[in-house]
Design goal:
With 287 residues, the chain is of the alpha/beta class. It folds into three domains: 7-86, Winged helix-like DNA-binding domain superfamily/Winged helix DNA-binding domain (Arc Repressor Mutant, subunit A, Orthogonal Bundle); 92-160 and 264-285, 3-Layer(aba) Sandwich (D-Maltodextrin-Binding Protein, domain 2), CATH 3.40.190; 162-259, 3-Layer(aba) Sandwich (D-Maltodextrin-Binding Protein, domain 2). The chain has ten helices and ten strands. The strands form two sheets. An eight-stranded mixed beta sheet has the order 4-3-5-10-6-9-7-8, sandwiched between helices. Strands 1-2 form a two-stranded antiparallel sheet. The longest helix has 24 residues, at 63-86. It is elongated. The mean pLDDT is 87.
């Protein structure tokens, strides 16, 4: 390797490409945006190539910059792995983003297993209904509820999504909900982020003509909790209510299962290799 290789400039370049701006890169590296800009110009001079088209408030990477970044990514990831081992640190820091309902149910239920098998993992967890921008470099991995189609991400299916109708045993007995026509007596609990009632009703052949109303929630966990409290019927995934079914706080009504066409996918950016800790956590998900 050449003795004049500008490692600091390369690090600044990588940070700008990951975060999308000199200011965000400066925040990550604890320097000023001016210092980042200076390092970028140094790298351009060393390479003899223009990496960015500069405007008043934006750095636009050139095609050559994108190709260069893609080519150096494997080397940067390998250096991170080697440095972690040489420092003798077996602690892996990983930032993970999850949908709130998934985080508080499926993932929380499996946390003891994660801690037992990966005791050296330092996990920074974000549970947000809005999908975070993984290309910004703030998060290593995410679980997303979608169809798996995004050419900017590596997407691997963890769980297929299907939904069924559930309620509390007391609610079922009180309203005598044993046949599809009994739905007329029930309150339907809707989740705006997972609106599948119309599809389930059409597939099951149930007719609710003349019936209006219901309860609507923005978040799945609130809808599920309302069903636990005997406030109506919730249409949700069995992955989100495993403990409720085992403890009989919720019971399934009817046999109809709707395949939504979505799933829970583990994703990470296609142009950013996983860190050591990211790889370890990724593998744990699929064990």
């Amino acid at each position: 390797m050449r003795p004049d290789t500008p490692f600091k400039a390369i690090a600044c370049f990588d940070a700008v490409m990951r975060t999308g701006s000199a200011k965000a890169a400066a925040d990550v590296m604890f320097v000023t945006p001016g210092a980042v800009g200076q390092q970028l110009r140094k790298l351009e001079g060393w390479l003899g190539a223009q990496l960015f088209i500069r405007s008043v408030r934006k750095l636009q990477p050139t095609e050559e910059a994108v190709r260069y970044w893609q080519q150096i990514q494997p080397a940067l990831a390998q250096m991170d792995d080697i440095h972690a081992r040489l420092r003798g640190t077996s602690v892996f820091e990983v930032s993970l983003s999850l949908p709130p309902a998934f985080a508080s149910t499926w993932f929380a239920r499996r946390m003891p297993d994660l801690i037992q098998h990966l005791p050296d993992l330092q996990l920074h967890l974000n549970a947000n209904a809005e999908a975070v921008d993984l290309r910004a470099g703030t998060y290593d991995l995410a679980v997303r509820h979608f169809d798996g189609q995004d050419d900017r991400l590596h997407s691997r299916l963890l769980l297929n999504d299907e939904v069924r109708v559930y309620c509390s045993p007391h609610y079922r007995e009180r309203l005598q909900l044993f046949a599809l026509e009994d739905l007329r007596r029930a309150t339907l609990i809707h989740t705006t982020s997972h609106a599948n009632w119309s599809r389930w009703l059409a597939q099951s052949g149930a007719s609710l003509s003349g019936k209006a109303g219901g309860v609507r929630f923005d978040q799945s966990e609130l809808a599920i909790d309302a069903a636990r409290r005997g406030q109506g019927l919730v249409l949700t995934s069995p992955w989100l209510i495993e403990e409720d079914l085992e403890s009989h706080r919720l019971v399934q009504l009817f046999d109809c299962t709707l395949i939504t066409g979505k799933g829970y996918y583990v994703v990470y950016p296609i142009d950013s290799p996983l860190s050591v800790g990211g790889k370890v956590l990724y593998e744990w998900f699929f064990q």
